[in-house]
Amino acid sequence: MKDLVEAASETQPRTIGVLDLRFGGTSQLQNLYQEGASKALFPRKQNGAEAICINTSGGITGGDRLTGHFETRDSAHLCVTTQGFERIYRSLNKTNGVIKNSVTVRDKSSIYWLPQETLFYDGGYLDRSLVVNADSSASVLIVEPTLFGRVAMGEDQICGSLIDRITLSLDGSLAFQDATKFTGDISNIVNRPAVMAGARATALVIYYSRAAGAVLPKILPILNSTSGASLLSDSLMVSRLIAPDGMKLRQMLIPIIKEITKSDIPKTWRL
Questions:
Q1: Measured between alpha carbons, how far is 238 from 243 in angstroms, rounded to an integer?
Q2: Which of 22, 167, 238, 267 has the fewest CB atoms nearer than 10 Å to its CB?
Q3: What is the pLDDT of residues 4-31, one digit of tens each?
Q4: Is 169 exposed, middle or buried (0-12, 13-18, 19+ CB in 10 A)?
Q5: φ, ψ for residue 264 (rounded to 5)?
Q6: Which of the 8 DSSP states describes residue 94?
Q7: Rounded CA gap, 159 and 103, in Å?
Q8: Residue 242 neighbours by CB under 8 Å, 6+ apart
Q9: How far apart are CA 32 and CA 37, in angstroms?
Q10: Is the Cβ–Cβ distance between 204 and 240 less than 8 Å?
């Protein structure tokens, strides 16, 4: 039986998805390309544009590959979110699922990158990267939340591999880079006091804007004792949130997003 499962995992087709969205002017869609499992919906929005990214395969497992490019220019504003959690399922042959996204923010445009949580299951293998290139006149909000197992379901032992990289460049120069690599017994790694001290939910928040300095004092009271935020420059704020579970993470994350955006969170976050 084991041989049959391994043979099937080597021959079954894998998920491929490509998405390319570009906005200009006053948030008009200027380019839309979607292929395979990657789709986008555009709900009505009073100010700017909103794109809901959908992975029609329902999750990521070994051998899957999703790529995306998102671009704004002129005075366009785009909020990018997802239909629901991105689930990272067990990889039978221990190969990575790959997600590669790039974001370009030109001129005085802006992008809010607000995907819902990535839920990492036992046996998941994920190699993910997000590369952001912005002009110094633009503004960018990047939020990447991750959950390790379903705490309410008693999923406490998580093994696998997570490689996650986020890079922000301003006017072509590197401004911030974050890299995570958890391999093997992930539960044991996140249980370490210097990593997450047993917590199972985390999020990275990166905010580049002239308003970053004014936002920081309003965010600090929202954070719990295991989270922090600081200014790396007058216009660049970075915050790392760590919480026991997804619910406690959202109790911090949603007020922070509302404070930064001065508007409500995407509709899909409330469904």
A1: 17
A2: 267
A3: 345 444 556 689 999 999 999 989 999 9
A4: middle
A5: -80, 165
A6: -
A7: 30
A8: 196, 197, 199, 201, 202, 224, 226, 227
A9: 15
A10: yes
